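ok new one. same drill as before - structure tokens go in, u give me an amino acid for every spot. 97 of them this time. try not to just spam alanines like last time pls lmao
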């Protein structure tokens, strides 16, 4: 449940998180929305949907459920790569000042 809650919250937060474009912080809601839709939105929604499917089907354990669990783990590892990119952007921003 925690992973599903985090994933859902992450989608909402990303629609409200600015980004740097050409060294300038872009905070326009429309630009932020477009940027997120073009980058990580589909990936994040896929993770949330897989988590929800696993929660719904957790009462019955079968082979297809186990494959879905593995798929979610792979997606989460890719999300960790996303976090390292965010961390690098934060460090670059801090060093600029």
């Amino acid at each position: 449940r925690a992973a599903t809650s985090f994933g859902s919250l992450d989608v909402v937060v990303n629609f409200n998180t600015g980004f740097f474009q050409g060294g300038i912080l872009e905070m326009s809601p429309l630009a932020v929305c477009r940027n997120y839709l073009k980058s990580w939105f589909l990936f994040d929604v896929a993770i949330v949907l897989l988590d929800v499917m696993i929660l719904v089907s957790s009462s019955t354990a079968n082979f297809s459920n186990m494959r879905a669990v593995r798929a979610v783990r792979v997606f989460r590892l890719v999300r960790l790569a996303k976090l390292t990119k965010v961390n690098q952007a934060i460090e670059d921003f801090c060093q600029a000042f």
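The radius of gyration is 16 Å. and btw The first strand starts at residue 19 and ends at 21.
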